[in-house]
Amino acid sequence: MHTPVTIIGAGLGGLTLARVLHVHGIPVTVYEADSSQLARRQGGMLDIHDYNGQLALEAAGLMDEFRAIVLEGREAMRVLDRDGTVLFEEADDGTGGRPEVMRGELRRILLESLPADTVRWGHKVSSTRALGEGRHEVTFADGGTLVAGLLVGADGAWSRVRPLLSDATPGYTGTSCVEFYLYEADTRHPAAAKTVGGGSMIAPSPGKEIFAHRESGDTLHIYVMLSKPQDWFAAIDFTDATAATARIAAEFDGWAPELTSLITDGDTAPVLRSLHALPTGLRWDRVPGVTLLGDAAHLQAPNGEGANLAMLDGAELGKALAAHPDDVEAALTEYEQAMFPRSAEVVTFEGVEVHRIDSDANTAHGLINLFTEKGQ
């Protein structure tokens, strides 16, 4: 294939595509808005599934590197009632198909698998426009431009490439997440550490949930889910950490203290993450020379598949381009025809609909609402 590939966005999906293209000897450059690999926190834990995310890593030739960063025991799950009663518990016996890793570590192994000059840091895209004949111009915030022969938008929810294909924009899902961290949990927050256990813990209730995950380094990552309009959150002054924490905790008045302490004992100021989604089943007509992957293509309401689907998108697009080196449009058509239905599938877990959080905008790692149908 002689057409260089230009990828916008160095998230997990864009980097997986870059790695698969590199494996097949296809020239590729990735443009990323962040100033460096360490410019910001890369989110929390991700469970990488054996039916999509791990398939992408196999295509990228990185399964050994992946296994080396898996955190043992983190697939353990417990579900608690609001009074602290354990409703469901499952240990991690090492046979599950969703091993947990830190998102930052996964991104690191992808970056390290690429030539050093593949990613061009500090390139924030301000706009894109079609030039005709499958060529597109990308304009950066600093005024610089480039012309791409094959442009891939892997730039997340608020993609600057998506307008070339669709006028769809993400809408608020009706739910937001507020994040907290508890550090040195076993020694400084022993009751909270015991409540969470060795993996993840969820305490679900209509319109609100507390989810916690034991990450690396004895850290508990807390995600508080509230189904509230955006105006409700806008009325909270999140620059006043004490007041904001108290307002969020008040929504759980009457809950067991070992659960509310996950909010009130946080070692960090609360961080608000509003959750958005693109229209379900979004599709577009084939436009020569450009396509999308991951959240840029199919940002979903929380379902736990976001990062995994983005990586699989990247791998499948890379393989399609390698299989059709002389016909880029055939490769893009093949990729999109498989990607559209794949991203629209409903995810289930043991017959119960899965509602999990997992976004390339570095929000929460996951949320399984196992007991929604039981009215918990």
Automatic annotation (TrEMBL):
It is found in: Cytoplasm. It comes from Streptomyces cellostaticus. GO terms for biological process: response to antibiotic. It is an enzyme of class 1 (oxidoreductase). Belongs to the aromatic-ring hydroxylase family. TetX subfamily. This is Flavin-dependent monooxygenase. Keywords: Cytoplasm, FAD, Flavoprotein, Monooxygenase, NADP, Nucleotide-binding, Oxidoreductase. The keyword Nucleotide-binding applies. Residues 3-349 form the FAD-binding domain. Pfam families: FAD_binding_3. It catalyses: a tetracycline + NADPH + O2 + H(+) = an 11a-hydroxytetracycline + NADP(+) + H2O. It comes from the Bacteria. NADPH binds at R40. InterPro entries: FAD-bd, FAD/NAD-bd_sf, TetX_monooxygenase. Its cofactor is FAD. Consists of an N-terminal FAD-binding domain with a Rossman fold and a C-terminal substrate-binding domain. The keyword Chaperone does not apply. Its EC number is 1.14.13.-. GO terms for molecular function: FAD binding; monooxygenase activity. An FAD-requiring monooxygenase active on some tetracycline antibiotic derivatives, which leads to their inactivation. Hydroxylates carbon 11a of tetracycline and some analogs. Monomer. GO terms for cellular component: cytoplasm.
